[in-house]
User: Fold these one by one.
Assistant:
Number 1:
Amino acid sequence: MNFQYFKKKLFLLLYEKIAFGKQRLFRLSYHAILLLSFFGMFLMIAEVGYETDALRREWYNQMIIYVIDLLMFMYFIQVLMVLLPGKPKVSRWNMIIKIVLLVFLSTHLFDVLPDDLSIARHSGYRVEWLFNYALLSMIFVRSWSRLLKGLYSSNLQGEKMFVFSFIFLIIGGTSFLLLPVSTVEPISFTDALFTSTSAVCVTGLTTLDTATQFTWFGKMVILVLIQFGGIGIMTFTSFFASVGSSEHSLTEGTALSSMVMSKNLKRLFSALYAVILVTIGVELLGATVLYFQLPASAFPDNMSRFIFALFHSVSAFCNAGFSIAPNGMMNEVFDKAYGIQMTIALLIVIGGLGFFIITNYAERFVLGINNFIRKYIKHADKIYEPNLVNINSRLVVTTTFWLLAIGTSLFMIFEYNGVLSNLSLSEKLMTSFFSAVTPRTAGFNTLDFSTLALPTIMLTVLMMWIGASPGSTGGGIKTTSFALAILNAFSIGRGKERIHYHNREISNSSVRKAFLIITFSIVSIMIATMLLSFYEPDVQLRSLLFEAFSAFGTVGLSLNLTATLSEPSKYILIFLMFLGRIGIITLFVAFVRKTRYLLFSYPEEDVFI
């Protein structure tokens, strides 16, 4: 009896010791991965960012290989620890990710990577080095994202984290663009900050020619900034931190809901994955379609052709408006290439609709296919889901359709005998459509906007001010705010006290938010234009006003003015771009002091309007 008791006691003691050791070893390996990935990124930036001789470059890469060896050892420990009893428990997907990373970390031991790939000729780096850089970057993002996950679970307000994440990304992008390897010749801090802000805020306004002033590395930095800025760094870090994790806190979900725009916390993280998957899927599909439409004779090899297609696909879907072609989309590659133009226009529209409008209609499409299979193949009853396409989706799609239809028609009418005069009827229609799409925060232009008639410029300003839809990559006051203003006008005209749309009553809170956005957007743009006119006294008011609307709407169109602005004017546009991307509501919610709910109400009075 005593022997059984001591045996059980010894077993429990041994179990506790193993579990404690496992927990401690897991924690130590995790912190080691954090430090090693940070050191590896430091070595990578030091090597790539500055000109080094061949001997020093070899030394840097040898040090990176040592870091990778140590990371491989740490992941090997973590995989082995899973076999031991006790916490932390590792989910199946997390385990698969660790094993995959372990396999990738081991590949440098084998001579399996060819050195004759064209990407090596473009970048000047061996394929093995580029593979190591990509692997280090992946581990760095994943490990530090898991650290940031704890910040999202804190009591720090979600809107503040959203704002600070963009500030952090802009500062990081500025630092990378100031590296000697990023530009053909050194650029000023203001130009680096302007370009970084324009990329992160997916605007497209540039003080430097992206095609000629930035190197291969600098263009890749801009591409990454566009991607992170379009979706949001919080979305990316949360995705990498959440993949393989089955535990999510309520505060983490609340913080992310301001970014992902989901009221249902239960479906928040599935929506988060949908954002990433939709983005990658659409951008790769767009890049593939563009690749086959681009003339092979315009590129030295297939790799440069695909990189060109991928850059423009990401830039279009994120509504950024950046181009690596000299003179942008007025380059001969795009001239009268209406297939390419329509592909880019479609990417702009999809990106401007918003991720959850896309997923909302995708769910309806999948349900329709499922019901078709159930009815005609399985001979089963249909599945009915009421209100699958919600009121937001209906309002956004309807508003977007009418804005594009009216915009295309008016552009064609205004410029029929102007810049469109030498085109055929079909070419006029396609050019008008593209020119109506691009002010919706995209910034690509196949025409010189400084040659447009004044009514066309005013139409473009209006489209830039309205912008894209909530939850999308675009800026502006958003289509829903504009739609609510129109609906409110009709409601007042008909003597109604409430706004009704598709058998739904719009909440008073939504109307008040739309009013706030519209009012402060106009005030912000007018103040910015006033300041611009002070610093640019020789420039026409039309050009300054156009520039201010373009910056606030994160559009990127210009009347050939941006590059000639003085430094104070550039900083005004930097603030406008940031304000347009973050959103007025977000800034108010993040930094205006909250008041407690009042348990009483004051007597109501009418104000003369």
Note: Residues 10-342 form one domain.
Number 2:
Amino acid sequence: MANDKCRPGGVCYDNAVEQLRRCWRLESSKIRNFCIIAHIDHGKSTLADRMLELTGAIEPGHEKPQFLDRMDLERERGITIKAQAVRLTYELGSQTYELNLIDTPGHVDFTYEVSRTLAACEGAILLVDASQGVEAQTIGNLHLAEENGLTLIPVVNKIDLGSAEPERVRDELVEIVGVEPEDVLFCSAKSGAGVEELMHAIVEKIPPPSQGPDEALRALVFDSKYDQYRGVVTLVRVVSGELRTGMEISMMASGARAQAESLGYLNPDMVPAGSLSTGEVGFVATGIKDVSQLPVGDTLTTYQESASTALPGYREPKPVVFAGLYPIENSDYQQMREALAKLRLNDAAFNFVPETSLALGFGFRCGFLGLLHMDVVRERLEREYGLELIVTAPNVVYRVTDKAGNVCIVNNPSEMPPANEVVRVEEPYISLLIITPGDMVGPVMELCQQRRCAYRDMIYLSTNRVEISYHMPLAELVSGFYDQLKSHSRGYASLDYELEDFRTGPLVKLEILVHGEVVDAFSSIVPKDRAQARGREIAAKLKSVIPRQLFELAIQASVGGRIIARETLPARKKDVTAKCYGGDITRKRKLWEKQKAGKKRMKMVGKVELPQEAFVSMIKSEDSGG
């Protein structure tokens, strides 16, 4: 009978299980999961360095600043591209706490990854530069944190700068976040002043993780990356249940199955562990070779006893900006294909399909989350794989409805149906948020009106800080808007945006013809009232970059088969009468007529090959906002 009590259902067994659960509750109360949200260059990664030093994770005075930014590109640009998680052990009084810091990307292109990272936390440090004040992305990330119900700790950083105005910035935070002035902390991430007080606030204010709705395993995937030895390594936050080594796991959205070959936590390097319990943050290596099978936001559970409901908030990240990537040397095409395939292993949001251009040869049509994402992919391809690339002007995805009622998605203007078959063209709109100094409001609003923006609201954050919001077509943003905004505001304005929906607009396909042949690479979708001006602009640029031929060349802009602009490139002339010394004028006229007939014949049968140099110079002029 005594032995029966120790079996499942017996008194001793139940008491032991209950004691273990109490022990877990005691331990879970010492866990704090938090992240740092901030605008670019407000000191987020430097503050993470000081926390790592304070808790002994790295040695003080280490040689690598911005330690959690592992890529050279991240450190050079001062931005975070990939999320990182690190477990810190912090002692306060006689208690030892486990602090899980998740370093998030700060740029608007990676908003979805940021939102999933915030969903893995209970609290967030809202970091603001003492000299620059609240910026647009600060407010954007603040709204994401509030939507996820996070406890916020507002912090004013860089208080040791000569231009710092900590009291003014504190007042902005009090107004925006709705906290009391005494709740705003001050620190200098560079010198370490105030970081100890911030660590105390993390322990005291951020709540410990709560138990899930049941005992079934649910773990939120908030980042994935490919390791050539381990396969796909995912960063997860265990919401309920326990994840153990060797466990058969499955993904509730993608349906992928795998085995947890190894798991553990980062401190800041990988430290193996036998299991991850509720509330803990760590990594899982699966051996899967495709990152898209373990997407960010998916719910990881056991295969045999799968959870009944997935964690909320998952969506598949979709590209919103498209551009063509072409190797400068056609012989590099196969190498570029392999490089793109390897890069996609680390970035599931990036996709590509082969395409061909008459001007550039073989290349790929690539989809990106935004302009920064596009720039990062291009630079990684050039650095890591030694490629020299041409990037065509970016464009957005359109939704086109034809007369038969069919709806097609167009991410390349050359794919748009003929004008006489199109009933409606819809383009993506964004909710645009701009923060600018008060004396720059006029020029900024004038710029927005030129870019088809619809005014929404204006709020004064302080005596000289204004928040302006608009509805704006995404196509206007990707065509040099950010550079012009910086120019109109003398570099002081910042912006943040969020995708809204598709809206119908008076859009037409603008085609460029050279010698009667359509050049697909120069085709674009533009507002109808701007088509003629844009066509004249492109035709004039092409006239200046295309070398003269032996015959007269017509460069035309067309909308729906109707020519709306034209430039004529004169023929390259040769003096055929140079050898005529004296004699009757009829000799010269005879030679001129013969030359004229020859040029007419060449014009009829001649072909124009656009040199790549002309195409590259055309793209550069478009990138410069010309």
Note: Confidence is low (pLDDT under 50) at residues 1-26.
